[in-house]
Amino acid sequence: MATGIWISLAAYFLLMLGIGVYAWRKSTSNSEEYMLGGRNLPPAVAALSAGASDMSGWLLLGLPGALFATGLTQSWIGIGLFVGAFVNWIVVAPRLRAQTEQYDNSLTIPGFLGNRFPSRARLLRIVSAIVIVVFFAVYTASGLVGGGKLFVSAFDGGYMSGVLLTLGIVLVYTVMGGFLAVSLTDFVQGCIMMLALVVMPIVILTTGQGDGVGAAAERLRSEVDPNFLSLTAGLTFAGWLSAVAWGLGYFGQPHIIVRFMAIRSVEEVPAARNIGMGWMAVSLIGAVSVGIFGRAYAVRNGLDIADPETIFIVLSNLLFHPLVTGFLYAALLAAIMSTVSSQLLVASSSLTEDIYHSLFKRDATDGELVMIGRIAVLAVGLVAVLIARDPESQVLGLVSNAWAGFGAAFGPLVILSLTWKRMNGAGAVAGLVVGAVTVGVWIMAGLSGVIYEIVPGFIAAWIAIVAVSLMTEDRGEYRELTTG
């Protein structure tokens, strides 16, 4: 492996570890700092942290791979995600920032739900914490699969070596620096990811062995599929709905919406939204371009891409100087690590705050809770390694299952708890359980190919919340709060 690649990667690793040390010294003195960074994130950090922790290796592996394999129809996923993210910033972000602080300074989503619905507080904390830990173990595994694939494709290394090295680096800075370390590394990683996704398509199209946009398009139509660049060819309504329905998942992703809770103030939410949506637009367009123009480059040069999800890795190695290749590999690791670290921290926060602190030791000291949080990060990471041990795992498949589980279980629950005064604790529990169970049953029944499981799960959870809340007593659990 070229020395330049290792120099770039070493610089990246040292930067991440340096941020971990800084955050450890700056913001780990109590549980609020370790879990939420003291609710003091600047808009740019909150925005890019939300985006980077959202997109994960899916942005550089899964989405380009799907477009490389089947064409532009796969971009509906990105369109649905963009719309969902925008609505999430409008509807959820300002309300969640205000209400989690005013409902007894809630530090986690299960904690907020327990404080919002005191009649079912204990049950909500337990069930929601279990759902978070289970689905995040699967979600984290998808990131580790991406790390393993990178080491196999780029370094001719062992798959499990890549999985363990990826987890090891993430564990160091997450365990040390908590939420602030995760958020600051996410900001840096988000910048690296966006830059890589701008540079890669330009080089693909302008290199001596590539095509311009027009020539690439013509090559794809003539040598791959006449409908390769069509947004609608062969797309059924169910297929279209399954793709755009990914946007529904945003409202229920704890590792994303927890960033809303940590922004410095409600007044700064619009600035964070504008930064975040700009970053997302550029990054999604770049990922789509990598997949589409990468296919044209592969056809022209006779490349045999055994796994479409490795197209970014293959092109990084072929088209760039080793120093730049190392930077692009760092971008991929950034995408993976930003999400893995966020998921590990949110899962550990739920185990610490909503299980250990709430159920077993209410008088635990801040130092004790921080220590338990660090142990929980390690435990969830090890479980994710067990799930990720199959090298044939598909990143997009694992992400889609976990994304649907969170979106259905928490999406309607979060929206209605923030906006509907009549909702009660019984309805909250019903929605949480019905959403999670519906997704699980849909997957096990093999119906995901009919329509994406988030659609029936989201609808069933919404109906359950409304129906049960209206059929049971209104306990007056909603407080009149300023939402900004």
From TrEMBL:
The chain crosses the membrane at residues 6-24, 45-69, 75-93, 123-146, 158-180, 187-208, 228-251, 271-293, 369-389, 395-418, 425-445, 451-471. It catalyses: L-proline(in) + Na(+)(in) = L-proline(out) + Na(+)(out). It is found in: Cell inner membrane; Cell membrane. This is Sodium/proline symporter. GO terms for cellular component: plasma membrane. GO terms for molecular function: L-proline transmembrane transporter activity; proline:sodium symporter activity; sodium ion binding. Catalyzes the sodium-dependent uptake of extracellular L-proline. Pfam families: SSF. Keywords: Amino-acid transport, Cell inner membrane, Cell membrane, Ion transport, Membrane, Sodium, Sodium transport, Symport, Transmembrane, Transmembrane helix, Transport. It comes from the Bacteria. Belongs to the sodium:solute symporter (SSF) (TC 2.A.21) family.
